[in-house]
From TrEMBL:
Pfam families in UniProt: Methyltransf_11
Molecular-function GO term, any one: S-adenosylmethionine-dependent methyltransferase activity
Gene3D superfamilies: Vaccinia Virus protein VP39
Organism of this sequence: Devosia riboflavina
SUPFAM superfamilies per the UniProt record, alphabetical: S-adenosyl-L-methionine-dependent methyltransferases
InterPro entries documented for this protein: Methyltransf_11 (IPR013216), SAM-dependent_MTases_sf (IPR029063)
Keywords: Ubiquinone
UniProt name for this protein: Ubiquinone biosynthesis protein
Amino acid sequence: MSARHQDGSAGDANYGVIGTNYRRYRQPDPHIAGFILKALGNASTVLNVGAGAGSYEPTDREVTAVEPSDSMRAQRPAHLNQAIDGTAENLPFADGAFHASMATFTVHQWKDLKAGLTEMRRVTSGPVLVLTCDPTKLDTFWLNDYAPEAISVEASRYPSMDGIAAGLGGSVDILPVPIPLACTDGFSEAYYGRPESLLDPGARLANSAWSFVDPSVGERFAKRLSDDLQSGRWDRQHGQLRSQPFFEGSLRLLVGRP
C-alpha cells in the first residue's frame, strides 16, 4: 500500500482495473444522499476526499474534490467540478478552508487513516462526514453464506467505528443508514433483495472486495447462487428480503464536529 498504482490509485485497490465501469453500477442513492445532505447542514463550501466519480457530492454548494485515481477522475460527470489529484493524508489546503468535508466509501482505501482524518479535520471548520461500513456487521448479510472470503476481506479492510471516531476527535455521531430495496448505489448490501444482480460480474467488480479474493471464489459464488435461485432455496431462506423496504446492515454515517 506504500506505492500508488499505475492509474494513481493510492489505496490497496487498483481502480485502473476495477473502476472501468464503476459509475455504471455505483450511482448515488437518493435515500442515502438525504443523510449526507442533512449532516452537511448549511455548509456552503464542501471538500470531498477520495471523491471517486463524484457520488453524493451536493450540487447546490461549492465543492472541491480530491481523488488520486486517473480512472475515477475521468468518470466524473460533466456537471461536477474536475477533481484534484491528491490523497487524504496530504491535503493542499489551508487550515479551516472548508465549512464541511466528506469521505464516502473511501476510508478503507487510505494508507494512513489517522493522518487522513487529521488532515480533514485540519482543513474543516465544521462537520466532517464519513460514510463507511461497520466491519462487525458485514456478516449479517446473506452473502456471508455464499462467499465468506469476500466478507472476511472486507471486514479486515474497513476500519472500526471507534478508530474513525478517535481519528475525527471532538464530538462524533455514528448513524445507522438503512439501505433501500431499490438502492442505486451498487455496493454488495444494496442487492440484499435482488440477488440476481450479483450474478453480473460487472456488479461484483464494482465492489473492491472481489478483487482481493481468488477468481475461483466468484465462480463458486455465481454457480451456487444460480443453483439456489433456480431451485428456490435462496427464496425459501431469504425470500422476505425481496419485499423488505429497507435493510439495516453495515452502512454507517459518522459525523464529527469540533
